Amino acid sequence: MSGVSSASSGGPCNYETKGPDFEFDDEDHDFVNPLEYFISEIAPPYVPAPKAQKYPEVPIRTTDWDVSQGTKPAIKSTLVPFPFPGVGPAMKVNQPIPRGTEGLNTAIIIMVDRSGSMDSRAFPVEGRMLNRIEVARGLICAMIRMAQNQGDHFAVLSYGSSKYTEWPQAPAGDLGSWNTPLSKDYESAFQYFSQYRAENYVQGLPPPIPCTDGTDHSYAVEGIVKKLRGNGIDSVVSFVITDDFYNAGSLFNGFFSEDNITQIPRDTILRRNESYIYYFGIDNKGAEQRGRRCATDLNTMMEEHYGRPIKPAPAHFFPLDPSDPMAARKMAELMLELAASD
After folding, report:
1. What's the rounded Cα separation, in Å, for the pair 329 and 325?
2. pLDDT digits 0-9 by tens, 309-331
3. Pairing relation of β-strands 315-319 and 75-80?
4. Residue by residue, what is the 3-state secondary structure of 290-309?
5. Distance, CA of 236 to CA of 4 (rounded, Å)
6. Rounded-to-integer distance, Cα 73 and Cα 289, Å
7. Model pTM?
8. Which domains does the chain have, with CATH numbers?
9. Rounded to whole angstroms, what are the CA distances from 218 to 224, 231, 252, 259, 265?
10. What whole-number distance in Å separates Cα of residue 81 and Cα of residue 141?
C-alpha cells in the first residue's frame, strides 16, 4: 500500500512509503445454518437400501378400499397363524382386504400447527435462536430421512384456521394440492424444509410453513384424511405437532371430529388396519406441568372412547425452552421410534 501527496510530482512534499499488507481469511467466518446443525443431531443417517427390496408399486389386489370407508372395508375369511408360532393352531378371522401393492404401501404424514404462536422462540443452536416452527421443520427433516430409509411415501401438511398441503405441492406454492400423490422426493423436501430464515428462501416462494393462522384442531385430522383419500396407502403413521396444548377436551373434540363423508371420527379412520396417529404438544418450560397433564388427560379420554388401552400412548408433551434444549432431541427420538416399521 502506498501514500501519495496531492502536490505535483517532483516537489519537496512528494513521498512514497510502503504501507501495511492486509490479508483476509474467511475460513473461520462461514455461516452455520443452526437448523441444519440441529437436524444433523436428530435425523437418522440415510443408508441406501438394495434396489427393489421393498414396496414395488405393482397392484395385486382388485378389492376396492379407500380411507373414506373408515374402518369398514371389504372383508373375507382368512386363515392366519397364532400370534406366537408353535403355541397354538391357526385361527379363522375376518381380515380387512385393502387395495394395495406387493408389500405394504406405507406412508409417514406430518401435520404442523401454523398458528402465529409457533413463531415464538424455542432455544439457541450455535449462537442463533430457533423458533418453534423451525424446530418443527427440523423434526420434519428427521421424519423425511426415516421415510427415505424405510422406502415410505410421505407428506407434510399444516393447519390453523384451515388446512394446507406443504409438500408435495403441484404447482409449487399451491397449498390446496390435496389430489397430488404422496411424495418420495426425499432430497428436494429435505433441502426445502431445512432452510433458515428469509435469506435462504428459494424461487420467490413464501417461507416453509409461515406462521399466519389461528388454531382449529379439527383441521389437523381433516387434512390428513383428505390427503390420504384415494391414495391407495395401506399403512400410515401420522403425527400432529401443536403448541396449543392446554385443554384436553378441546383437543379431543377436534381430533375426534366426524368425517363428513363416512360420519366416522377422524381419529378412528386414521387408526385403520396397521395405521397410527400421535399428537405432540410443545411449549416453553413454564407450561410443562400443564402440558403434561393435558397429554395424560387426552390419553385417558381416548382410552375411554375406545374402551381399551391405547399402546403406544398417542399424546405427548415436550417443553422447547432454552433451559431444556434436550427436550427437542427426546421428542425426535420418540417420533423416530414410533415411525419405525418392523
Report:
1. 8
2. 999 999 999 999 888 879 999 99
3. unpaired
4. HHHHHHHHHHHHHHHHHCCC
5. 75
6. 41
7. 0.78
8. 105-339 (3.40.50.410)
9. 10, 21, 9, 10, 10
10. 38
